[in-house]
Amino acid sequence: MLYPKKVKHRKWFTKRKHPVKEANKTETRGITVAFGSFGLKAMEYGRISSNQIESARKAAVHYAGKNGKMWTRIFPDRPFTQKPAEVKMGKGKGDPVGFVAEVKPGRIMFELDGVDAEVATEALRKAGTKLSLKTKVVSRI
pTM of the predicted model, to two decimals? Predict the structure, then answer.
């Protein structure tokens, strides 16, 4: 699993943004296929956990085989907290339990190279099923 080596603040403030308003904002950085020939693009806003990133990466690498080269373009640097079970309201903020990556529409999350188009498309499609948002396979033009 991916997580930062060191963080300045253990707990971040909760982001109070409306999901529909957040979905209308598109990514401005990381929107082109830069390293490989094929990429997996996010089509909606979401938070991707480090477990989901690792699961998607494994699925794509397994299908692509030894010739495929994979790049991960997102990193989970946002901590999220959770209160224990059966704890009453109040009593402070919960403990950090993991890290997520915030992804806006248009972001290229994974890139693949070294395989033909059919294999790359299927590998990235399988990776997209492991994520909690809609994705699309794009290629370098």
Answer: 0.90
Domains: count for the chain: 1
Instruction: Answer whether residue 18 is part of any domain.
Output: no
Decide if pLDDT at 137 tops 90.
yes
Q: Cβ distance 52 to 100 under 8 Å?
A: no
pLDDT in tens, 18-69: 767 877 889 999 999 999 999 999 999 999 999 999 999 999 999 999 999 9
Which CATH number covers residue 111?
Answer: 3.90.1170.10
Q: Is 9 within a domain?
A: no
Domain that holds residue 63: 33-83+95-139
Residue 69 maps to a domain = yes
